[in-house]
Amino acid sequence: KFLKISERVHPHGIYLITFSFIQKSSINRGCDLTNSLTGVLTRLSAQPIAIMADIEKMFYQLRVPTEDSRYLRFRWWPSGDVVKEPGEFQMLFHLFGGVSSPSCPNYALQKTADNNAEYFDKDTIQTVRTNFYVDDCLKSVEDNRQASRLVSQLR
Fold this sequence. Notes:
The structure is a single chain. The protein is α+β, with helices and mostly antiparallel strands and 155 residues long. The chain has helices at 24-29, 37-44, 103-115, 122-130, 144-154, and strands at residues 2-9, 15-22, 49-54, 73-76, 87-90, 132-133, 136-141. A 3-stranded antiparallel sheet has the order 3-7-6. A two-stranded antiparallel sheet has the order 1-2. Helix 3 (103-115) runs antiparallel to helix 4.
């Protein structure tokens, strides 16, 4: 299976991510860069204090490169008026619910962790790499001090 990931960073820090596949079965399934939900939940029960976080509007923060947005076209009624003829539109952001959509935020998170590893402690970077399931973070720690530090760094 061959996976090509192209990336560019928009001047405002938004990742533009494109996935290309060479293999029929991969095209139908998409690639899976998502952390295992079982693994994330198992790690959550490892320590006594649980931390949960959500990245607001995660999919809306990941733009589709302009040259790829034509593949995300759809028809919809202008202003929701079903009496009118539907117009053609295209998505500029990654779809919530698309086959490859969960991989895009996970890739962006992994790249963000890699690109900013020097600014945060190893536990925070490891949390970003292993304790997110798409846009949700589930992590457990030993004490309140660790929880406060981690929450502060994840913001």
